[in-house]
What we know:
By secondary structure, the chain is an alpha/beta fold. It contains 12 helices and 14 strands.
Amino acid sequence: xxxxxxxxxxxxxxxxxxxxxxxxxxxxxxxxxxxxxxxxxxxxxxxxxxxxxxxxxxxxxxxxxxxxxxxxxxxxxxxxxxxxxxxxxxxxxxxxxxxxxxxxxxxxxxxxxxxxxxxxxxxxxxxxxxxxxxxxxxxxxxxxxxxxxxxxxxxxxxxxxxxxxxxxxxxxxxxxxxxxxxxxxxxxxxxxxxxxxxxxxxxxxxxxxxxxxxxxxxxxxxxxxxxxxxxxxxxxxxxxxxxxxxxxxxxxxxxxxxxxxxxxxxxxxxxxxxxxxxxxxxxxxxxxxxxxxxxxxxxxxxxxxxxxxxxxxxxxxxxxxxxxxxxxxxxxxxxxxxxxxxxxx
Length: 345
């Protein structure tokens, strides 16, 4: 059930639908809305609840999460993203009682620290953990998390500025069997070591998002893609140390790649597409905006070599113009986004 009608309606629903298993109370406004007392009613009324979404409920604090943890031990899915009052105390109550928890969203909960990750190591069945924008967690927390969580399939650490290679290496080794999506965007302390560690042990990984990891170099891509060839989505935008050599290794060794984002990798030129071969790649989406060294000739090479291509974004590329793009034989349905217009072929 999705509930947007307020406390009075919540009381009526609680009286009538006590067997509810999924409840969405998320908000889209800055208004505090739901309070801890409302969560206490939820905890008392819906003993079978397995899925709870309180995303962006800014009136919720540790008191509300404590009530959830005490009463809803069967909870498997919880989203508290944007609940800015939540601290380690609330997370610890959830982790200590909801041992069957599989999915947890904590994005933008900036008061939580490494202590929350230590507590979550109790959740042995945790599969999906989103910590985007949790700026007070770091390597120590990931090391503690890795001591108990070995079933993670999705880990999102975007904008966690204190996370570095040591923490990433620890958690990817612990979750090597199941991890298929790793998000490290805008983690300025993550470099080659963490990425190479993921390549060495995570054979199920198909999505790797590294945008803004400015320490990343060609060395990491070379080491990663000589071991791991199953990636379908690679995003390395704003990784400004990458050169043509790194991207050539990607194309040469990863035929399953479908999405590549290299926006604002300023050192790239047309040479990065040299290893593309017709019939040997699955590229569907390519983003090269801000790569001023790439010209229309490079785009032509992509169009000729990628039979599944459906989308190219090429904004702010000074050597790519509408006049040159329209002369390239793209497949029907391919969309090309330029500075001032979008072309559909």
